[in-house]
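User:
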Amino acid sequence: MNVMYIGLGRIGLPQALVSADAGHIVYGVDNSIDNIILLSEAKTPFYEPLMDELLQKHINNNFTIFNEIKMAPKKVDLLFFTLGTGIPVYPEKLDLSEIESLLDEVIKSISAKVYIFRTTLPVGTVDALSKRYQNKNFAFVPERLVEGNAIAEERQLPKIIGTYNDYSFNLISKFFISIGGDIIRVKNPRTAEFCKLTDNSYRNLIFSFSNDIAIAAETNKIDVYEVISSVNNGYERNNIMTPGPVSGYCLGKDPYIFEYSFPDNISKNHSVIYKARKNNDYLYKYFSKKAAELTPKIISILGVSFKADIDDFRMSHTHNIIEEIESELPGCIIKIYDPFISSNKYTNQYNENISVLTINDINDTNLFETDLLMILTPHKEIKNIDRKLLFDLLEIKEPAIFDAWNVWSDLNEKYEKYSSFGRGS
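Assistant: Predicted structure:
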């Protein structure tokens, strides 16, 4: 088939390359000229396992890229929208004008047998868009890929397909059968939109539960890791997660988008989905207050990405925690280390922030010239720091340590000034 992807970012690019590798003729459109230049030179704009190999194999063969929609082919079988949604400020209405104007431009320029949305949208968005273009076929196929494993998951995960007619479903399912993963048909695009929001909101909810009991455990001088291990052990009905910050471009916003789906009598008091996201947001203030209690003049933060071993700082909890610390401790010097700093456009967010000092080497002794070390992202470089070097530095510098992820738990009995989230004992 001839397929097109509008948006070649963290999710669109892996999908496009998997499609090319399945033998399809693939066109990609992205408005970032920097992105287009990198891709045309067979260079990836961010890290994703297998992506380098696929890009070098398919670029300018069966994968062709364009910087403007008007430059792209005029007819394709399937056209996928793989752009990110805006960030809601609930209860204000989510601004979808950018997607609406883009759709106008696309439909004027490109004739597709089916136009398919894979980005997160409020429930009913595709219904509204399809009414504006009643002679066009629309569908929603939720993207459920995790950064760091997107290519493998695109080939393996089930595809939930919501369409208005059999023609669209048959065409889309034929395409995804060639990609891999089971095909799940739901009644319509509205149901598929709801599936997408349910996925991320559920994950946010279960993480929120773990964070709540971690805060309660600290208050009552109980080790939440002991509790979780004990109640999960041999008890199949439990699968309680360990605690830690919950953020990123999906879990950070999708629960708020889901809140638009509830009736007024619920949304005025807020759903458990909304409250769970607010609880996870509260963790930022909770951590900053723990830091402020120590009245540090210098804080070193280890980890900026929203999750471990991913080169993406967007909507990361670390941003929010730093903002809270700056509010709690005006004038405090903040140093940050992350192995991915300045590696791509997703990790350049602190380059011009003069109140934050960036350090590129975890072994740099300047990082340990601090009153407080905060581990906020459990990158493997942070988890696996040479312990002899670490203990030598701690013996000399003697900073307090707050470990949000329990990754240096071996320090718990060995270093008096070590604490980790949820270990109240």
